[in-house]
């Protein structure tokens, strides 16, 4: 059910937000909410996201006893910036993201099974970290994972154009001015969620903590995203990944390639796939109640039946 806005717009009293130093000294903004059992969930958001957007979902899991941890990816949210323009989401390489995830995972001490979850870019990076053996979760949940980008001209031409544009100027400059993707008739809210109230929570947090807001990606980030997802789709190690994986996909997703995600899920030997139709936009866990409640029920059942 739709949680009252105060729960979505206030940090839990017994949770902590800290600056956690990565091995190279980079400070990551980290959220920890200890639970009484049955284990721990490490939840990672998408590009440009912040963990505050998922407090309502964290509260659902915490009520069930889970410890919940999350951190803002390097270069976004409260974890600093990688471009001179603080409004641009930049990356020269995705490797530091995997290194940060691996470092937090290695240090993360919770009793019971450990679950890795990722939304959008977070889903791509969680899966990549598993393939690279950088993390070893007892189970994983990938929500609207960025297995491919929804490019107006297709991924092959999109990557080629992004590489050309990266070479024509500052690679860290913004790839476009606004919205979550260029050349779309959809408003940003329509791309993310059909729930206007939950969408408004994001803006509320940005007004309270302006420095966590991020804008469009850089041309360099776009090149990295095209290349990394292309390599992941053809990775032969997918067929050897025995970890139980649940993948939630929105068929009408306007940001990531849902068909590529469905095809990849079928190549995983121990995966469950749950699809949503027109009722869901990209942010499945921030959708209207019928979608969100169904998604949480599927995740709860998966964790109850697939964990040791």
TrEMBL record:
To which species is this protein native? Sphingomonas mucosissima
Q: Which UniProt keywords apply?
A: Hydrolase
What protein name does the entry list? Lysophospholipase L2
Q: What class of enzyme is it?
A: hydrolase
Q: Give an example GO molecular function.
A: phosphatidylcholine lysophospholipase activity
PANTHER family documented for this protein: PHOSPHOLIPASE-RELATED
The UniProt entry, under Gene3D superfamilies, shows:
alpha/beta hydrolase
Q: Does the keyword Hydrolase apply?
A: yes
Domain of life per record = Bacteria
Residue stretches making up the Serine aminopeptidase S33 domain: 41-289
Per the record's keyword annotation, is Hydrolase included, yes or no? yes
The organism's lineage is: Bacteria, Pseudomonadati, Pseudomonadota, Alphaproteobacteria, Sphingomonadales
What's the EC number here? 3.1.1.5
């Amino acid at each position: 059910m739709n949680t009252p806005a105060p729960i979505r717009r206030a940090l839990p009293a017994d949770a902590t937000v800290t600056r956690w130093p990565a091995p190279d000294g980079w400070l990551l903004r980290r959220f920890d909410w200890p639970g009484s059992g049955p284990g721990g969930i490490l939840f990672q958001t998408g590009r440009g996201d912040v963990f505050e957007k998922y407090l309502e979902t964290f509260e659902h899991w915490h009520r069930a006893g889970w410890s919940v941890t999350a951190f803002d990816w390097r270069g976004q949210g409260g974890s600093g910036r990688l471009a001179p323009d603080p409004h641009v989401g930049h990356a020269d390489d995705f490797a530091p993201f995997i290194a940060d995830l691996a470092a937090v995972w290695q240090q993360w001490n919770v009793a019971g099974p450990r679950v890795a979850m990722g939304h959008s870019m977070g889903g791509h990076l969680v899966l990549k970290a598993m393939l690279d053996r950088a993390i070893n979760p007892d189970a994983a949940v990938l929500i609207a994972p960025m297995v491919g980008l929804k490019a107006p001209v297709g991924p092959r031409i999109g990557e080629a154009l992004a590489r050309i544009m990266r070479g024509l100027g500052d690679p860290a400059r913004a790839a476009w001015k606004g919205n979550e993707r260029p050349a779309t008739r959809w408003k940003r809210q329509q791309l993310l969620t059909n729930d206007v109230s939950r969408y408004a929570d994001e803006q509320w947090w940005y007004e309270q903590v302006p420095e966590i807001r991020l804008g469009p990606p850089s041309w360099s980030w776009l090149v990295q995203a095209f290349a990394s997802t292309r390599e992941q789709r053809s990775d032969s190690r997918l067929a050897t990944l025995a970890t139980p994986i649940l993948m939630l996909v929105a068929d009408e997703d306007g940001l990531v390639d849902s068909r590529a995600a469905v095809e990849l899920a079928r190549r995983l030997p121990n995966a469950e796939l749950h699809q949503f139709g027109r009722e869901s936009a990209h942010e499945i866990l921030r959708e209207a109640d019928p979608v969100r409640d169904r998604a949480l029920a599927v995740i709860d059942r998966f964790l109850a039946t697939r964990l040791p």
